[in-house]
Each structure stands twice: as C-alpha cells, then as structure tokens.
Amino acid sequence: MQVSRHPGATLFSVLKDVFGDRAQGVPALWRDTVRRALPAREAAAVGAVIGPRTGWIPDRLALVQDLAASKMSALEGELAAMDPALLAEEVVTFHSAGPTPSAWQPFLDDPASFLDAYRRVVDAAAAAFAPLWRQADVLIGREAERIGLAAVTGGLDGLLTGLGSQVRYAQGTLELPHACPSHLTDLGRRPLVLVPLASGYTASMYGADRDDALWIGYAVPGLGRITGDRAEKTDAAAPDALSLVLGPVRAQILRALHRRPSISEVAHVAHIGLSTATYHCSQLETAGLLRRERHGRQVRLHPTERGTALTELLAAPTPLLPHAGGQGWPLPSPGR
Question: Considering the entire predicted model, what is its pTM?
C-alpha cells in the first residue's frame, strides 16, 4: 500500500469536471476560476477527449504517468516529455478490439497539435489552481497519516470500504466498474497506490491498465475546510485515532456495538438518517468489523473479534454515546 500526494491527479480531476458533467463535484467557485483561465481555442480542441465520464484516458494525459510526482512543477516535465507518436500508438492499441471513439479522431489526425493545445490548457489550469493546491496540502498530509495508521493497526479493510471511489472493496476483492486487461486482474506484486484528490466532493478516478501499480483516486476527506462549505467543516478538536481510520460516524457506530444496538438506534444517536446508518453498517460488516444477529423480532448489531480489537486499540478513552443508565439505548434481554 502506498499513498501519493499527486497534484496532477487532482488537476486532471478538476479538468474532467470543467469539460464534463460535473461528476467530480468540484465546488462552483473553483470550477469557474479554472474554466475562465483556460485558452478558449485550445480548450475546445481537448474538451471532447477529457469530458466523457466513462471514457478511457491514458495515464500520460491524466497527468499520473509518474505516480511519485508531488509538485506542480513536475507536471511541466511530464508534459514536455510526451511523445505524440507513442501516445497515438497507445490510443490505437487500447481500441484495437473495436472502433476508436470519434472524440479521439482529431487527436489521431494530428497528435502533435493536440498535445500542444493540451499543454497550454494544463499550464493555464495549473496556474489558476496552484493556490488551492497549496491549501489542500495539509488535508492530503493528514490523509496519508490516516492511511498509515490504518495499515499498522489492521484497519485497512475498514478504510478501503469507505473511500467513496468508483472502485469498490468487499471481502478482500477490489471491484472495478470496467474490465481491465486479463493479465492484470490479479494485483500480484504490484503496489496499490491511493491518490487523495483535493478537487471535488465526488472525485473519483483509477488506473488498472499498467503493470507497475494499481492506483485509486478518491475525494480527500475534509475538503469543506478549504472550500468554505460550512456543512463539511469539522470541529476544531482533534479526532481520536479510530475516527481518523474509519471516519467519525463509523467510529461512533463501532464504539457503540457493546450495547448491541439496532440500526434505527444507531441512526438516532449518530444523528443520521436510517438509510445512511444502514449504508455505514453494511460497510462495517463488509470489512468484518460487525455482524448482525436476530434477537426475537429485532436485528441487533454485534462487534466481531476484529472489530473489538480495533476499537480497543484505537478508541478514545472518553465515550461519545449516552450512558446506559440515562437516555440511552435499550439493551437486549439477558440470554437472548
């Protein structure tokens, strides 16, 4: 497992949102700031390729050819090193099993001119987005710490199920929304590289067609702190380790499992909707941290051994839920 603080991935996510249907969830102010900075003629030339939500993009154009790049300045060298002929060959090879989408035809007709226009677009977008990237650096640094903590405490399953990416994780398997090359369906010895994206609330990308890594881009937690979205801001108090690994809602649920609550009780105490509580409990169950048991007419949530161990290792000493003797949750009847 590796973490990449990658500016290129975040910038490309912003461009996907600018040219597409806002699927990355970039805040309107950021989106408009970048859009206004783009040269109009060059933007028109490259937008048809970048915009489609489900379209394939070579890693070179997605600005993640070098997954270790950590500075905006590295994008300049990455773009300058692009060989138009090799890139065109990669596009043709990828679509060899069927017709090449019409959006790619202008590129194939003149790869050099397309890349020149693309460099101008990326340079303009990078200049406009650079101040926001500097603000986002602290969020990505904190996310790297969260992933490291999960790795050393056995909490990676819980973390992976909660990424919010289009790549899903369940029972030790990564599920991709589209097929990848058959010889790469097994992760093998390749590292799994997590790439937090400081672009939008629904940001999501991935790359599964390279033999040196499988990378997953997802929205960095806490983005509201730098977007000005008050609904997304968190309290100033530092979260405990369990919240850092699982997120505050799932951590609260896991800490409460000793009470054997129902999902409706989870929703009430955590101040979330029933459907939201059901979703979070399902994710924790998939990660092997809780199980469901029927008690009479009710289904109660129980911690697994793994969930208990993780909670004891990381939970804060101060309980966050009502005391059993007060306005708390009813406990299951003895022996049931």
Answer: 0.72
